[in-house]
Amino acid sequence: MQNDDIIFDFVVPAKQPWSRVISKGESLTIVDLEGQQAVDFLCFDAADPDDRYSAMNTIKVQGSAYIKQGTVLYTDSGKALLTVVKDTLGGHDTIYGCCSNPNNFLRYGVATTESCYSNFLHELATHGMDRTAIVGNVNFFMQVPVMPDGAAGVAEDVSAPGSYVDLRAETDVLVVLSNCPQMLNPCNGFAPSPVRVIVRKAGAPISL
Ligand SMILES: [Zn+2]
């Protein structure tokens, strides 16, 4: 890849949030550098942030509970925000939402101080947004199998080092992610690690 194809290339440290507006046509690649690292992900129409990612519409329209290659991430209004152009893992959760200090306590009886919800609050505030913007999110590199009896839970993360998703912006999109700090279930292999985010120009070929 020519260097001038790359607009932005950054390693998000373990447990930290990150955000950016991805312009229409640009692509965002998220790389699970060391493997077994969940990335909690929100996205919004940058021109109208009240119109935000809808797991409901995304699941219903495409008849799939998993985000995978070819999936379009839709908003409440039905606008296409991002298309998953490439997915090396084969399926990502979007039913289980993010970890928070309250749900950590309810699930594990542990009073945590770090969570994806807290990361979202911090990062959204930099865009003048608040908790009302937090909805059921995408959990890249995380699986939540649902059993025939309805039982569900976070599976051991099978994402290999170097797994990635490549997302094409279908409009100007604000993306807000949390590099999940969870230590109480296997979604991060009990060892939160860095992820890489790369933004490249429209039409530029992917290269890592
Ligand atoms: Zn989390």
Overview features:
3 helices; binds zinc ion; 12 strands; single chain; alpha+beta; 6-stranded antiparallel β-sheet; about 210 residues
SSE diagram, text form:
Layout: E1 6-12, E2 17-22, E3 27-32, E4 39-45, H1 55-62, E5 66-67, E6 72-74, E7 80-87, E8 92-93, H2 101-108, H3 116-125, E9 138-140, E10 163-169, E11 173-179, E12 195-200
Antiparallel strand pairs: 1-12, 2-11, 3-10, 3-12, 4-9, 4-11, 5-8, 6-7, 7-10
Residues 40, 98-99, 115-116, 180, 182 line the site of zinc ion (ZN).
Query: What is the rounded Rg?
Result: 16 Å
Q: What small molecules does the structure contain? A: zinc ion
Number of domains: 1
Secondary-structure element order, N to C: EEEEHEEEEHHEEEE
Instruction: Report how far apart the termini are.
Output: 8 Å
- Low-confidence segments, given as residue ranges, are none
User: How many β-strands, per DSSP?
Assistant: 12
Q: Tell me, what's the shape?
A: globular
Global mean pLDDT: 95
| Number of separate helices | 3
Describe this protein's structure:
With 208 residues, the chain is an alpha+beta fold. The protein has one domain. 12% of the residues lie in helices and 31% in strands. It is globular, with a radius of gyration of 16 Å. The protein binds zinc ion. Zinc ion binds next to loops.
